[in-house]
Amino acid sequence: MSTIYNILTHITESITSKVKESFLFITIFNILKYFEDAWINSFFKSFYPKENFLSFFKKSKILNKYLFSPLIVIVVFTIFLLLSFTPVSWSLEINLLIAFLTFFIGAKLIPKYLLNKDIELFNFKRKEIYSIGFCLILLGLIFFILCIGKAGGLPIIHSSLRYKLSPALTMPIFLMIPGIGMIASCYLMDYKKNIISRTQVRFRFLILFMISAVIFLTLAYRTPLLAVLLLLIIMGYYGEILSLWEVVIAALIGIGAIVGIGYYRVIEEGTITKGASPISTLQSRADFTLHVLNLINSVSGDYGLLHGKLIASSLPGSALGPRMMIGKLIAWRSEVTVTPTIIGPMIVDFGRIGVAIGMGLIGFILGIGFKIVEKTKNSFYLFIYALLLTYTILGVETGILDIQVILYFIIGLFIYLVILIKNRKFKI
Predict the structure, then answer these.
(1) Where are the domains of the chain?
(2) Given 3-state DSSP classes, what are the helix, strand and coil percentages for the chain, each rounded to the nearest 5?
(3) pLDDT (tens digit, 9 = 90+) per residue, 38-76?
């Protein structure tokens, strides 16, 4: 494994070095440096609210320290359920109870007995992390240009073009998200070493978000944009470069983006009348997703229906993707994609046992990651935790079914297990 990593970092460092020496990127970085200096020395900074703005937020220990603990997943799931007016069957209520209970055990109770002394981590070099992140962003930009060229226009302007985007071309674009997280973790490292100021790292976080916003808004994608925003908020929160009030405001902006972009899309596609409100579109989406979950639960029984075939369909080359398989399963329509919530795939494949094991495992991964972040304050491990928590929160509605997201969880679990074995300081 170390040999593969060394080869990967050698290649990415070479690519990063050559690209950053090119005239184009020297020009871009010089322009960004100019704006960064202007930002730092700007007179208008004095008008920006200070750290103690909305200071009443700081009185809450939960908001100050545990806002993005793994248990936020249960909170988000509960809010999502409350948004819908769709009645939940008794059988589904049991599955939801199992999901919440096993997630709590995995995220809160088991990590309590692990890594209780000083933690010995694998130290990834800043140069290696930066080069991998830089290459992932560069790869995403290249495929973004290819996508726009193949579609023949901008999906944000002509919504019908969104359905002409090829998954083979869009999937590499989503690699920008971990790439942005890696670059952000490097900036946090520099900030902790006093190489750059707090103002500089905040500006660079903003630039990273703006780059992703241009890319994903152009493609009319909502979830990836929200993923970048949430990822950077979590990293900024625990990296102590964002004030608590800024986190709250950014979260509200994210909710507004979900509602606004969703409303714009359904109006453009003509799937709802113009008299409908943005809030009603959000509620109707929750209603539909919970209705899907009810149907999935009713046809899967106690022991599941597909026994692993659904999750296997996320692999490249499968005739139908997992969300299309669910569409075919409940409506015999394989041409549509259906969001099944985070527990939907577990129910379809393995029933209640799948829910218990799946939610317990996700909780365990996030619980160990959170404990490592709490005890070490390591910026790279903060990125790993923030990435996994981001996709878990988003997966509350969409499910964790994309192959790259599944790989993130596998890599995260592998790293955490190796750390547990390396430390050998845990007792149960």
Answers:
(1) 56-271+341-423
(2) 75, 0, 25
(3) 888 877 666 666 666 655 556 666 777 788 999 999 999
How far is Cα 215 from Cα 225, in angstroms, rounded to an integer? 9
SS (H, E, C) 93-150: HHHHHHHHHHHHHHHHHHHHHCCCCCCCCCCCCHHHHHHHHHHHHHHHHHHHHHHHHH
How far apart are alpha carbons 220 and 264 in whole angstroms? 10
Q: Name the region of 64 (left: φ>0; alpha: ψ -120 to 50; beta: rest).
A: alpha
CB count within 10 Å of CB 373 equals 23
Closest alpha carbon to 109 in 334, 428, 420:
428
Mean pLDDT along residues 190-201: 93
Give me the sign of the Cα torsion angle 201, 206, 209, 211. Answer: negative
- The pLDDT tens digits for 398-420 are 899 889 999 999 999 999 999 99
What is the tens place of the pLDDT at every residue in 78-109?
A: 999 988 888 888 999 999 999 999 999 999 99
Mean pLDDT within 14-40: 89
The rounded distance, in Å, linking the Cα atoms of 370 and 412 is 12
- Enumerate residues 6+ apart whose C-beta is below 8 A from 60: none
Q: What's the sign of the alpha-carbon dihedral 413, 414, 416, 420?
A: positive
Terminal alpha carbon distance of the chain: 29
Q: How far is CA 412 from the centre of its chain?
A: 13
Closest alpha carbon to 264 in 276, 255, 254: 276
273 confidence band (pLDDT: 50, 70, 90): low
What is the pLDDT at residue 54? 59
Cβ pair 228, 241 in contact under 8 A: no
CA-based nearest residue to 235, from 115, 51, 378, 131: 378
As given in the structure block, the two tokens for residue 124 are: 């990834």
Rounded Cα distance between 205 and 259, Å, is 24
Q: How far is CA 368 from CA 134, 342, 381, 387, in A?
A: 27, 20, 11, 14
What is the DSSP track for 297-337?
HHHHTTT-SSTTHHHHTTSTT-SS-HHHHHHHHHHS-TTS-
How many residues are present in the chain? 428
